[in-house]
Amino acid sequence: xxxxxxxxxxxxxxxxxxxxxxxxxxxxxxxxxxxxxxxxxxxxxxxxxxxxxxxxxxxxxxxxxxxxxxxxxxxxxxxxxxxxxxxxxxxxxxxxxxxxxxxxxxxxxxxxxxxxxxxxxxxxxxxxxxxxxxxxxxxxxxxxxxxxxxxxxxxxxxxxxxxxxxxxxxxxxxxxxxxxxxxxxxxxxxxxxxxxxxxxxxxxxxxxxxxxxxxxxxxxxxxxxxxxxxxxxxxxxxxxxxxxxxxxxxxxxxxxxxxxxxxxxxxxxxxxxxxxxxxxxxxxxxxxxxxxxxxxxxxxxxxxxxxxxxxxxxxxxxxxxxxxxxxxxxxxxxxxxxxxxxxxxxxxxxxxxxxxxxxxxxxxxxxxxxxxxxxxxxxxxxxxxxxxxxxxxxxxxxxxxxxxxxxxxxxxxxxxxxxxxxxxxxxxxxxxxxxxxxxxxxxxxxxxxxxxxxxxxxxxxxxxxxxxxxxxxxxxxxxxxxxxxxxxxxxxxxxxxxxxxxxxxxxxxxxxxxxxxxxxxxxxxxxxxxxxxxxxxxxxxxxxxxxxxxxxxxxxxxxxxxxxxxxxxxxxxxxxxxxxxxxxxxxxxxxxxxxxxxxxxxxxxxxxxxxxxxxxxxxxxxxxxxxxxxxxxxxxxxxxxxxxxxxxxxxxxxxxxxxxxxxxxxxxxxxxxxxxxxxxxxxxxxxxx
Length: 689
Prior knowledge:
Blueprint: H1 2-44, E1 55-58, E2 64-68, E3 73-74, H2 84-94, H3 106-119, H4 129-138, H5 145-161, H6 164-174, E4 181-182, H7 184-192, H8 201-208, H9 214-217, H10 223-239, H11 245-253, H12 271-283, H13 289-294, E5 298-301, H14 305-318, E6 326-332, E7 339-343, H15 368-377, E8 385-388, E9 414-417, H16 418-424, H17 427-437, H18 439-448, H19 470-481, E10 485-486, E11 492-496, E12 502-505, E13 511-512, H20 516-526, E14 554-559, E15 563-569, E16 574-580, H21 595-607, E17 623-628, E18 644-649, H22 668-674
Parallel strand pairs: 1-5, 3-4
Antiparallel strand pairs: 1-2, 5-11, 6-7, 6-16, 8-9, 10-13, 11-12, 14-15, 15-16, 17-18
Helix pairs in contact: 1-5, 2-8, 2-10, 4-5, 4-6, 8-10, 10-11, 14-21, 15-17, 15-18, 15-20, 17-18
Protein name: Penicillin-binding protein 2D
Domain Glycosyl transferase family: 62-237
Subcellular location: Cell membrane
């Protein structure tokens, strides 16, 4: 019997020893596993905190003009831009020991387990803010063991690699507050129409209660449930030392005004412009589509709301609502290329195709200033003359004969100057110049002006038969307006990521590509379309809109069978307008042919309203201004009935005096008296004095 007892004792000791050994091995394995998990978490490093957030687009004055999102309103703000009331309320109700634990609140977990056992069901949660943040960032909200294990692992990684402030900031920017509002900034705007930093204690404690159950505790769903939840939060804040008991009682009784509207515009402003901005983010900044749409970017653009609204107004006013005519418009600051307004079509909802940047259309005579700048480089001057007459051009290389026509088949049937040819848009003069310079000269010059579309090396190129984009033409004319400096159409000045880090900032760089003297001479010639002194066999092409203009402008109109253009500028703004049918249908109605000019003139006036009236200033050197007879380009005498002050590149000004009117001196005074009724611009432009 004693032997059996002794044997039993030894057996018990054996089992105990085995249990202890196994337990130690288990504990060692658990420790190794735990250390392995920590090491693996450390090796993996910081998990990315990026979540889908709305990308915001701002005008040049900081006004929000639109956003890109997937139906979820998300805006990231720093912890310093969140009301301390909201921070304290959230920590108090969700995780009072947040700043003391390392991701897991073991005391709270034990309490939750005990409560669940007593109730025989899950009645109390124990997830910390870090655990909830891990779940929101990386996991689905299913209740599986796999999800719980992964949640714990991501919690460890977050705590190992980020500060408590970073985690709390991320949590407050990702939790769901109902009604498509993700994060406290979106929720604050939606429920109270204010920024998160401006929330008072009443508003903050109301919002802090929503995430537990947005469908239950949202004040828009049930104010009674929301107030009950708010009262609990206020009590926890008293218990945790955040507020006084009297304060809690006072706040609980205060009324709340709920807005319940997302303050960002549902219909975005300047939709064609915003599409162009997104395209620039992709092709120029090389951002992917997801980052652009859901990266939480803040994109600061060049759009001027006043000028954009003016452009939209003029298009709506001048183009008949029943017409199928489309319009493309780009307005730029010539000093830096900043695009201030853009019209890509008459109705974005019906057609998002952007005619300002995507459509390639024949520019007609608006290409001539580029041709004539090339002519200035080759010795031409505003007083250079050629015959304007019906002409058929024959070619020795087997190329087919070419017979260009002037508008309404009108010709001077005599010599006209380059200045007048440009003002009345004489096509014969242009083709002769083009052929004289060589058909490749205009192609090379167009590249110099930043035009990238391919151009055909043909005689008709001088009349704008090769397609271009509206934005390219606006940019090309900017070189005249700014004295010959290269600019590029710019839509974006700065881009910030969701953390406020600047990932792109525009740096203004200028490079002179045109001779300033020649650029100014071209500008002064381009004022001629508004100068009746240059009327000849035809009126100057800007005659129909002169009365609408109140400040100095330079510009050029253009037309083909299917396209109508007007491009012009002041020292502050350059604008290109195209009007036509998408399908290339001929423009037959008189009104259709006037849309571009009327839109341009009235847009420029409204866009520049309130800005100082500026004349085009000649460069300090390189140009000489003299009075000439606009009919022949020679130096004017007192006997010439019309004298026009004209600038020339220094050394190319005429030296021969006009002798055509020496025998008509008696008639001269009467004609001079008739010319005392001068156009609007004579008082504004120094060369007309």
